[in-house]
Amino acid sequence: LDASYLNGDYSAANQEIVAEQYVASRYGSWEAAKAFWEANGWY
To answer: What is the superkingdom listed in this entry's lineage (predicted)?
Structure first.
């Protein structure tokens, strides 16, 4: 993800929160994100 998603907070906790939000909004779940990656070779 681009650093702009982190709003200047590069802490591990914020990176986790932002990753969760991104995956939920783009794929719906981590399982769906993994399935997309396996089918397409990229995310």
So the answer is: Bacteria
Q: Find where tokens 């907070």 sit.
A: 9
- Which one-letter amino acid corresponds to residue 7? N
Span 6-34, mean pLDDT? 96
Using CA atoms, how far residue 26 sits from 11, 16, 21, in Å, is: 22, 15, 8
Q: Helix 12-26 vs helix 30-40: angle between axes, to the nearest 10 degrees?
A: 70
- Say how many domains are in the chain: 1
| pTM for this entry | 0.78
- CA–CA gap between residue 4 and residue 9 (Å, rounded): 10
Q: Note the Cα 31 to chain centre separation in Å.
A: 12
